[in-house]
Amino acid sequence: MSSLLLSMLASAAIAPAQVSVQQGSAEEVAVESRDRERRIVGYFIEWGVYVRDFHPLDIPGDKVTHVNYAFANVGPDLKIAIGDYYAAVDKYYPGDTWDQPYRGAYNQLNNVLKPMFPHLRTFISVGGWTWSGLFSDVALTPASRQAFAASCVDFIRDYNFDGVDIDWEYPVCCGLPSNKYRPEDKANYTLLMAELRAQLDAAAAQDGREYLLTFAAAAGYDKILNYEVAEIAQHVDWLNVMTYDFRGAWDLGLTAHHSPLYANPADPGSAEIAQKYNTAWAMQAWAAPGVPRAKICIGLPFYGRAWGGVPAVGGGLFQPATHVPPGTWDDWSSGDTGVNDFWEIEGFEVSGSYTKHWDAAAGAPYLYGSSIEGGHFISYDDAASVGQKLDYVKAEGFGGVMFWEFSGDRNHTLIDVIDAALP
Fold first, then answer.
1. What is the CATH number of the domain that holds 75?
2. Is 397 helix (H, G, I), strand (E, B) or coil?
3. Considering its fold, how many domains does the chain have in total?
4. Is 390 part of a structural domain of the chain?
5. Which burial class, exposed, middle or buried, applies to 349 when counting CB atoms under 10 A from its CB (0-12, 13-18, 19+)?
6. Residues spanned by the domain of 170
7. How confident is the model at residue 423 (pLDDT cuts 50, 70, 90)?
8. Are 399 and 39 contacting, i.e. CB atoms less than 8 angstroms apart?
9. What SS3 string covers 227-293?
10. Domain assignment of residue 357, yes or no
11. d(CA 93, CA 100)
12. Residue-level pLDDT at 130
């Protein structure tokens, strides 16, 4: 822990370890720890504290094993940096004081929620789709890797996280056009994770506690080629495969499933995409080089992807579209995204405006509303498809599940399915 934070903790009126009493007595707060055979990892989004009004204490801590806080940024000095300062460490919650070391979602997650659930562990996730632009520079040299890893160690000590989750989207190619890319990203990513592992282990020995390391792994066959799969996996506790966003309204030429378990032989898309853009193919691709299956977690989306202007043929599946329809949280800056939270899709299901379909070959549901958006097609996961994926995880010996993200399942429909299937 930094000397500055140590001095602040010593003088603070309310230290982080004491903040949990805000929610009640120790007897009222404590929840029995649950040991699970497999991991249940959920992302908490920092921006959720605004319009979404979703906060760390809304997390069902008894139903998950790990929380990934999304996201920290990479600063111009190539070190980890707080993403949104106000949301992370400045926002006041009930019981907070002006002179405690930090407030905000970090404090609520790590010093209020976590003491309620002794089994729960938290990660700071770094990067994501928007903030991966400098990872190529971070990973480039021994000096840059060492400095970044050291900053991560200081960060998790200062804010009481249990580990670091790297969300580099993506090495070598295929993220935002503004990102930096190099062919040597493939090898350098492994070296970066090796440096993080070494420094986290050294810190763990000093502090007498465990520090964890994971990363968000691409699921597309074209992106998996840009990892040293077996080598990078050696340095992490596990990896979370982002088995979603296989298809979306960035391609209006063809509607399809964005997170199918299996390929549908009737998919008229290009042969390689039709065969390989699915969950089972991606999971097997990560396991094939010898990565222990217990180290690989499947990714589940708590949201759907939609297309507008879709013909009614086949309930809209494998049809052309004309536009991207509105999503749940669109605003002036995002425009129409076609991304709908699962809780909203649950409302669509019972609204009478949509017909629900099931693709048995893919193991995926979809909705079609002929009177909405000129033909509204939505690909998503429901309780049945999540249940089928959980059966697959257990049958194949994989390490558990990761999902994006908590606020998408406000009714706990999907979380309850996971909780029951992975006790």
1. 3.20.20.80
2. coil
3. 1
4. yes
5. middle
6. 20-301+383-421
7. confident
8. yes
9. CCHHHHHCCCCEEEECCCCCCCCCCCCCCCCCCCCCCCCCCCCCHHHHHHCCHHHHHHHHHCCCCCH
10. no
11. 12
12. 97
Residue 145: pLDDT band (50, 70, 90) is very high
Q: What is the largest CA-CA distance in the chain?
A: 68
Positive/negative CA dihedral, 3, 23, 125, 74: negative
Residue type, 156: I
Phi then psi dihedrals of residue 301, to 5 deg: -95, 130
- Rounded to whole angstroms, the Cα distance separating 312 from 364 reads 18
The pTM of the full predicted model, rounded to 2 decimals, is 0.92
Task: List active site positions.
Answer: 169
Alpha-carbon distance of 301 to 286, in angstroms, equals 19
Q: What angle do CA 290, 296, 301 make, to 5 degrees?
A: 145
pLDDT at 26 over 80: no
Predicted confidence band at 33 (pLDDT cuts at 50, 70, 90)?
Answer: low
Place of tokens 């992370």: 88
Give residue 79's Cα distance to chain centre. 21
**Residue 253 domain-assigned (yes or no):** yes
- Give the Cα separation of 338 and 377 in Å (integer): 10
Q: Going by DSSP bridges, is the β-strand pair 303-307/376-379 parallel, antiparallel, or unpaired?
A: antiparallel
- Which residues is 88 bridged to in the sheet? none
What's the rounded Cα separation, in Å, for the pair 349 and 356?
7
Percent of the chain with pLDDT over 90: 91
User: What does the pLDDT look like over 329-359, one tens digit per residue?
Assistant: 999 999 999 999 999 999 999 999 999 999 9
Length of the chain: 423
Give a yes or no: residue 186 inside a domain: yes
Torsion over CA: 102, 108, 114, 116 (sign): positive
Spatial distance between the Cα atoms of 316 and 155, rounded to a whole number of angstroms = 48
Q: Choose among 102, 105, 127: nearest CA to 114.
A: 105
Average pLDDT over residues 398-415: 98
